[in-house]
DNA sequence: CGAAGTTCCGCTCATATGAGCGACAGTTGC
DNA sequence: GCAACTGTCGCTCATATGAGCGGAACTTCG
């Protein structure tokens, strides 16, 4: 009936509360409190335990901003991430969410990038949103990790993400104009030999932090999927492709899936991506649960910027 | 602008929250946390300080019942009381408040009275309410401290408070039937020599805990005031009478006021009351602020059972 | 560029604290 | 009446913790 299991009567209750106030709010030591109330310090400790377990003292952790720190923490430890930022952005328009998460990711990047870092950027709309929101960055080199994939009819005007970010940072930019995938391996080979491309690629090994999006191998859930022919999509799906991270395809366990397409891609390879110390993915949408899990399990991604809904789903899926 | 002064970015924020959760909610030690996050224990301590001062960690003390523990604590330390129970009873009908406070006082008494105590009861409606609510009490002697003062037209049917409480306790009752005040000193003298009265009075010195009401020397604020002739009321007011506790009259500083009436009272004296180790007063109503302060200052009362409104007023008045 | 703050960090050492123990009192069941 | 049980208390001793310090990195001026 009574919720307060510890207290036997009002005097006990008030005493416990007094002790708790002095300890938790006034910051006095248990020894001091014990002296003040003529109790043993053990008694004080037991009263405080009672106060905690009976709910007389309630401790809450949270903050007034848009970051759900508790959820971020849980997601971080559940997936073993390096960094994790979960915003409580409502699940409305993709563009809105992208903007929110982009801003959150920009804040994160501003905070964690040091002058010793080398920043890699993949081509994704969420990365572009981040670039837009970015206002300050340590002076680091910025390296383009993949070719661009402009979708017909959609002008993102954001092929210059790398250049923009480098301008904010005040560091050198290693970028190139090339598509993410081409029709045949020979063309890809040729492109990779282009001076700008080759120079950017030569820097990939020294990248210390990268930002990418994660796509699920489904319609509308990956720019690369949408740009790939139907037959090839199906073939790749048959081979177990589950997620696409900056052009790198992995199956549900996070293992890279090699295929014809791999040869025709202009961009970072699976091994190179795994070698980057920190890859931050900006992801949103319920549909991407398994793709994100795959990317994390495969070691492609080790930090996340996402929203509450997906975070909860990820935790649930990872725990089962 | 930002309330969280401590955190410089989302990563810092999430880290601080994680550390705080492990420390405050999971009960891990700072050393453990330091190891887990590869920080020095000092850094952990500083993060926790930040978390506290920035409001990321909020600690509240309160409980779901009717006792306002925080206010009780503050009133207790402000007035230097032994015990204090403040309920958040709304200020409605006096009878309702009396019943609530009576129940609270009964709980308090049940809790703090030990078999070694001797209990003294004064005559007051609030004490009667307490007796009604009392359901359990250590087997102690119960001593009547004053004569009764039945008001014309009000049948309290509670002249037997002492007998009732003693029955609940299972201890001996020392009670008598006599009025609180009589028209002349000689009659008072004679009454005091009555065997029952004398026997009860002889126990007053051994009383260890007493329960009383506190009256303000104003109309409707003291049964004794209302029962006293107008001339005498005024004369006593002129002498500075501010409060009445179980028939004992004190001025605003708590000093006893001796007068004709004193000689004509049947009950405990000021000196005897001050000698009782713990006198618990049950008081309600905004009008009694100064009376209660006087009673406490004079050492007549050293524990209080009251309601939030009066408690706040008492704290405000005592602090000024 | 150099000097004077300013902030952050991790150290030492005295103190505060917790785990676990045995003593003791009150309760229960025979 | 007595024995087992239960809950409370305060102890010891190893560990956790805080106050205050000095050094290093970074800022801010001249």
Automatic annotation (TrEMBL), chains A, B:
This is Sugar-binding domain-containing protein. Keywords: DNA-binding, Transcription, Transcription regulation. Belongs to the SorC transcriptional regulatory family. The keyword Lyase does not apply. It comes from Pseudonocardia zijingensis. The keyword Transcription applies. Transmembrane segments: none annotated. Residues 68-315 form the Sugar-binding domain. Pfam families: Sugar-bind. InterPro entries: NagB/RpiA_transferase-like, SorC_transcr_regulators, Sugar-bd_dom_put, WH-like_DNA-bd_sf.
């Amino acid at each position: 009936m009574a919720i307060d299991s510890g207290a036997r009567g009002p005097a006990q209750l008030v005493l416990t509360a007094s002790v708790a106030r002095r300890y938790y709010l006034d910051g006095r030591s248990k020894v001091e409190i014990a002296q003040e109330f003529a109790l043993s310090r053990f008694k004080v400790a037991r009263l405080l335990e009672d106060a905690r377990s009976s709910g007389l003292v309630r401790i809450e952790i949270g903050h007034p901003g848009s970051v759900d720190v508790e959820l971020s923490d849980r997601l971080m430890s559940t997936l073993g991430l390096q960094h994790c930022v979960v915003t409580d952005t409502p699940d409305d328009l993709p563009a809105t969410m992208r903007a929110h998460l982009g801003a959150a990711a920009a804040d994160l990047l501003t905070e964690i990038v040091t002058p010793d870092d080398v920043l890699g950027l993949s081509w994704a709309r969420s990365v572009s949103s981040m670039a837009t929101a970015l206002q300050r960055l340590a002076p680091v080199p910025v390296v383009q990790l993949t070719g661009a994939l402009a979708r017909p009819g959609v002008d993102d005007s954001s092929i210059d993400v790398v250049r923009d970010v480098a301008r904010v940072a005040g560091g050198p930019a290693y970028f190139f104009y090339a598509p993410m995938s081409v029709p045949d391996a020979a063309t890809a080979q040729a492109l990779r030999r282009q001076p700008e491309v080759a120079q950017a690629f030569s820097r990939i090994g020294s990248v210390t932090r990268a930002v990418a999006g994660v796509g699920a191998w489904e319609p509308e859930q990956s720019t690369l999927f949408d740009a790939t022919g139907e037959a090839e999509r199906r073939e790749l799906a048959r081979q177990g492709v589950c997620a696409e991270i900056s052009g790198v395809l992995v199956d549900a366990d996070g293992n890279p899936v090699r295929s014809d397409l791999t040869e025709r891609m202009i961009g970072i390879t699976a091994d190179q991506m795994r070698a980057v110390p920190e890859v931050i993915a900006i992801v949103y949408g319920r549909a991407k649960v398994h793709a994100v899990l795959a990317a994390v399990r495969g070691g492609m991604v080790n930090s996340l910027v996402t929203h509450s809904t997906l975070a909860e789903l990820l935790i649930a899926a990872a725990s089962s």
